[in-house]
Amino acid sequence: MLLNQMSKQFSFSEDEMNGIVEDTYKNIIYECKNLIRETKCPDEQIIALLSLVASTFTQTLSKE
């Protein structure tokens, strides 16, 4: 089922790219920098956290 989901093309609209997508990206970067600032964690910890977040959505796709 994951293959079927991945084969469907999806693109954000230009308005979405310049709006919510860009805002979301900026917020993620800001929060990661804030986490580093507050905890003094290394970049590798941020990468691990982002990988965990990504895996949450991967599991959702593979269940459909």
Explain the overall architecture.
With 64 residues, this protein is an all-alpha fold. It has a domain at 33-64. 83% of the residues lie in helices and 0% in strands. The protein contains three helices and no strands. The protein is flat and about 35 Å long. The termini are close together.
What features would you highlight for this structure?
single chain, about 60 residues, mainly alpha, 3 helices, about 85% helix, flat
Q: Into which percentage range does the β-strand content fall?
A: under 5%
Number of separate strands: 0
* Structural Rg: 15 Å
Low-pLDDT runs of 5+ residues are none
Mean pLDDT: 87
From the N-terminal CA to the C-terminal CA, the straight-line distance is 6 Å
Shape: flat
Question: What is the structural class?
Answer: mainly alpha
Q: Please write the string of helix (H) and strand (E) elements.
A: HHH
Give a short account of the largest sheet. Answer: none
Helix content: over 70%
The number of helical elements comes to: 3
How is this structure best summarized?
This protein has about 60 residues and is an all-alpha fold. Helices cover about 85% and strands about 0% of the residues.
What is this structure's SSE topology?
Elements: H1 2-7, H2 14-39, H3 43-63
